[in-house]
Backbone:
């Protein structure tokens, strides 16, 4: 960033080439290099915004008794409000409905179970059988309800990389159906020898909307076993 006090310019605002200028209340002129926008208005960002708008509409239409039920649920599982607890499930469900045609109901009926979704044993392993080269993601659904599990995958990295929180490769995102009290799995075709990170979230497939914690795991893509 450059700061200019100029006897020639009294003020300047806007951009010239790759530099954006502003003038402070004291008359100082500040120049900043223009960076790539963080709000590009992509297709998937549009899906997310639509999902939030949909969740807000459902919440506004909810009855007072339903809102109180969400407040009670929020207090049990650690959300700061019932509205936040509802939005966590409804916005994710709306996103999956729009992007993957998941057909998850979004009515504001509060949960009768006082916990977030319990999925665990989330690991990536060498593909087996007829699977393509890459990695196989495995997990366990410990709930008595069916789930929709969103799995997001990173770009390919050098195996020495140890951390990634996004952005994710939109072309590799999938939703995995998980029956109640069952194991879930999905094969990913990836570049052998490269490291990939996975982000996993689950939401109930039908009925009161509960979500899981966000889980992360990683692995190095391998050849499928014979």
Residues:
């Amino acid at each position: 960033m450059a700061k200019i006090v100029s006897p020639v310019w009294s003020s300047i605002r806007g951009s010239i080439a790759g530099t954006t200028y502003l003038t402070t209340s004291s008359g100082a002129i500040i120049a900043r290099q223009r960076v790539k926008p963080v709000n590009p208005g992509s297709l998937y960002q549009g899906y997310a915004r639509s999902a939030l708008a949909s969740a807000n509409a459902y919440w506004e239409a909810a009855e007072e008794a339903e809102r109180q039920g969400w407040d009670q649920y929020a207090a049990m599982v650690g959300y700061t409000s019932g509205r936040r607890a509802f939005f966590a499930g409804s916005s994710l469900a709306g996103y999956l409905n729009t992007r993957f045609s998941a057909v998850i109901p979004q009515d504001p009926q509060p949960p009768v179970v006082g916990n977030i979704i319990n999925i665990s044993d989330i690991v990536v392993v060498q593909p087996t059988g007829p699977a393509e080269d890459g990695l196989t993601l495995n997990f366990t659904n410990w709930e008595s309800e069916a789930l929709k599990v969103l799995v997001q995958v990173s770009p390919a990295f050098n195996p020495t990389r140890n951390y990634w929180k996004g952005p994710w490769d939109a072309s590799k995102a999938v939703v995995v159906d998980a029956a109640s009290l069952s194991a879930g799995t999905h094969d990913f075709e990836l570049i052998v020898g490269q490291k990939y990170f996975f982000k996993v979230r689950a939401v109930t497939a039908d009925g009161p909307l509960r979500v899981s914690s966000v889980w992360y795991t990683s692995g190095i893509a391998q050849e499928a076993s014979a």
In short: The two ends are 57 Å apart (CA to CA). The longest strand covers residues 195-204. The chain has a mean pLDDT of 88.
